[in-house]
Amino acid sequence: MTDALLTASKPELLDKEGDRTLRGLLYDYFAFGRSLEACREIFAGFVDLSATQYLILIAIKNSTAEEPMGVNQVAERLYLSGAFVTNEVNKLVSDGLLEKSPHPEDGRRVQLALTQRGMNLLIRLAALQRPVNDALFGMLTREEFKMLAQLLSRLASNADSALKLAVHVQATLKLQEEDRRASAASPPDSRKKRRATRRNGR
Question: Gene3D superfamilies of this UniProt entry (predicted)?
Fold first, then answer.
């Protein structure tokens, strides 16, 4: 395959057939991701929540007394903005599914916990989640499952940086393409003047 057509450059991501393995991985990941998204929508709809509210309740359910969760901790765990999580948490509090209490060591913070109503809702939901999650991941061995969890954690922690890079590179390539088109369409003297203006910072 011509290097200009490769969708990655790191040797670890390429093989003798170019980027075919990488593309296959991404196709499989997108297919699995669509199934996960669909299952999440089903889970949330089953208990009349939005998909984000469902995730927030699950995240708080898995907090501990030693590591209580506030808005910032939920936002960090779910890779969401603090403002967005705050808005959703307030809805869940109004609906009687979450409760806020002062943090025992920091009076400026609050910690979140499920109410009994919220706990009952998740107990009802778990009857649906168990068979579906078993079907999604049940073909993995314990070691494969642990490895998958570790790999996805590493990938997720780097995804935001990759997205910012995508936006930056996209803008740079667009500017380069616009410059090439403008240069091709303008007379030689105009191209020289434009390059001189850029060099002088004007």
Answer: Winged helix-like DNA-binding domain superfamily/Winged helix DNA-binding domain (1.10.10.10)
